[in-house]
Design a protein that fits this description.
The protein is an alpha/beta fold and about 260 residues long. Helix content is about 30%, strand content about 25%. The structure holds adenosine-5'-diphosphate (ADP).
Length: about 260
Amino acid sequence: MSKPVTIDIEGVQKIYTSGREAVIALENIDLQIDPGEFLAVVGPSGCGKSTLLLLIAGLLEPTAGALTIDGSVVKGPFTKAGIVFQRDVLLEWRTVRKNVLLPAQIKDLNRKQQEERAEALLSQVGLDGFEDRYPHELSGGMRQRVSLVRALVQDPPLLLLDEPFGALDALTRDQMCIDLSRLVERGTQTTLFITHSIDEAVFLADRIAVFSPRPGRILELIDVELPRPRKLSIQTQPVFQEYVQRIRAIFAEQGILQED
Ligand code: ADP
């Protein structure tokens, strides 16, 4: 089993210079993510959340500052990460099983072991019996569950989730939150979860980084001290609502949420 990673981000800035004007996406980001921690990032659109994820994945380079995983500077793609984006990017001509096993096939990993793990994970998210179906036969939520299982099948030490439920309806999102919390509960992955849903962040995370509008800075880091396993009913409890209100108040102060 792989060991979850430690991520260290020090003074990171990211400026995009590809367009006509330079865009400062991130400014002065200092953040350490502990092994096995589930860190959610919430912030308004365009505040640099995806940029942060791509920097950690090694798909972008910071303009300034340092980013290390387990003490090594990230240079080039961190191939051990499992990544899920808002769009599921499943291959339509491969069955569910073959989509899930694709990374293992590319890396030539132990097939039997990977198949067993794929089957167990698919069953955990209620997809047993769907292994030989094709993506077009599945609902949006089922497709995204397949993406999640594909990201987890190699037991990655780092899981990067960029608005994975963003395109799903509210009920499906609730179910996905339950499924994801079960999948990551054991702390075997360090997880970065990008969302603009405050409720999702509070329900899932150990800690939440609240971002300012662009250029993205961390306004506050909030420890979510709710017991696990968490059930959806926790969302109606005052202690849950206190976290939600606290984050809303930060956004209201920034002028992102306006009531009058
Ligand atoms: P978020 O995920 O919070 O919505 P992003 O990280 O996608 O924000 O983008 C942050 C800012 O950087 C936005 O203003 C976006 O338009 C800009 N941006 C993102 N990618 C590029 C790029 N490749 N070139 C120029 N600007 C970019």
